[in-house]
Design a protein that fits this description.
Length: about 400
């Protein structure tokens, strides 16, 4: 398709698998499709319940808003207006009615403070009007308050931490996180203080049946009673959270979790999102006990992967084993102090033996992506890559 000339920081791209992936395919072909001329973070979900996954957009420049792009035309429909911010947002069924809702953060008092990161973030969720209403009508999406994070939102995830059947919201600021426990439509807050600065995922690292909070090189073990019990901090690798150069770039990571070696345990994948010279690595304990006590054994996917602001996991080639997506993003050229040089690779690492020991690299593009995700857009049976350039 013909490319529409747009500024480097002003579109969302879909790298779509050109054919359905076949088992043990050497490399999966992708084609590039521009779906929006605005800069947005993305998630993939079936918003209108037609059986085909759409793309949810959180615009953080220009007219900031939440919207969704309907498959297959990618026509944009509004969800909500507001000064939405933060590097992550989530899509989940918050009210248990069978459709996908959206949870995000927005500035509490912008533009009262000069710095965006100085503004505290208010977390809210937006109720999909289905089954009675029309999700194409923005006014039908009702805003529900979750709570004030008390800092700038870096990461956000949804999961049932207290195992009561209701999805909770976990939001991370730089030096603390908050759990918002879902109590029949009201939200009970729990603040957790921990090392800085960026990166979060949820996963059951100690195989005890509950979700733990996985951060940049360490994790917080969820107690039997998450509302009152002590979240014990456990180390994975200090190099990801004990950087001390004085730069804001210290300890900025992208975090993902998956069972990469089919041992039934959850492994942790880490990369540095704001510096050079760090690897793309995965870490595994030998047992659930060693998940708590260590050591976590580092295993290298790529010796270096600079400015890695995308890490996701999925079976890209259809061979039954999880592969890893990683990508570098291009920084704003108007800020010369932090410009990063090309190329800006978007890479699939194929897990060739299924145990994480051999990784084969495919560079899908060198145009870069920020906070990209893997997902089956259109629900045609293969995984696509979606994300903005920055």
């Amino acid at each position: 398709m013909a490319r529409v000339p747009v500024p480097v920081f002003a579109f969302v791209a879909l790298l779509s698998a050109a054919v359905q992936a076949q088992a043990a395919a050497p490399h999966v072909p992708f084609k590039r499709v521009e779906i929006s001329t605005g800069c947005a973070h993305v998630q993939i979900a079936d918003i209108n319940r037609d059986g085909r996954n759409d793309i949810v957009l959180q615009f953080h420049t220009g007219t900031t808003r939440l919207a969704w792009a309907e498959y297959p035309t990618f026509a944009e429909h509004p969800i909500a207006a507001g000064k939405f911010m933060g590097d992550r947002f989530a899509v989940a069924d918050l009210d248990g009615d069978g459709d996908m809702d959206v949870v995000s953060g927005k500035a509490s008092d912008l533009p009262a403070k000069k710095s965006v990161e100085a503004n505290p973030t208010f977390v809210a969720w937006y109720e999909n009007p289905l089954p009675k209403g029309d999700p194409k009508k923005g006014a039908a999406w009702k805003e529900h308050p979750v709570g004030d994070l008390g800092g700038y939102l870096k990461d956000l995830a949804v999961g049932d931490l207290n195992r009561d059947g209701a999805p909770d919201v976990v939001a991370r600021s730089t030096a603390h996180s908050k759990i918002f426990f879902n109590k029949d439509g009201t939200w009970q807050q729990r603040r957790l203080v921990h090392p800085t600065k960026e990166g979060m995922a949820l996963g059951d690292l100690d195989a005890d049946g509950d979700l733990d909070i996985v951060l940049n090189g360490f994790w917080l073990e969820t107690p039997t009673s998450p509302e009152q019990g002590n979240f014990v901090q456990r180390a994975i690798d200090e190099k990801w959270y004990k950087q001390n150069t004085g730069s804001w770039q210290d300890n900025c990571c992208y975090v993902a979790v998956a069972d990469l070696n089919k041992d039934g345990l959850v492994e942790v994948i880490l990369a540095h999102s704001e510096q050079v010279g760090y690897p793309l690595s995965w870490y595994a304990p030998a047992s659930p006990v060693q998940a708590r006590t260590g050591p976590w054994i580092e295993q290298i996917i790529a010796k270096t992967f600079d400015w890695c602001e995308t890490v996701d996991v999925g079976d890209v080639d259809g061979d039954g084993t999880p592969d890893v997506l990683a990508a570098k993003f291009e920084r704003d050229k108007n800020n010369p102090k932090y410009v990063n040089e090309p190329p800006y690779p978007i890479v699939i690492y194929y897990n060739r033996k299924g145990d994480g020991s051999v990784w084969e690299e495919q560079t899908v593009s060198e145009e870069g992506v920020y906070a990209g995700v893997l997902g089956d857009v259109g629900s045609d049976g293969d995984l696509d890559i979606v994300g903005p350039r920055t």
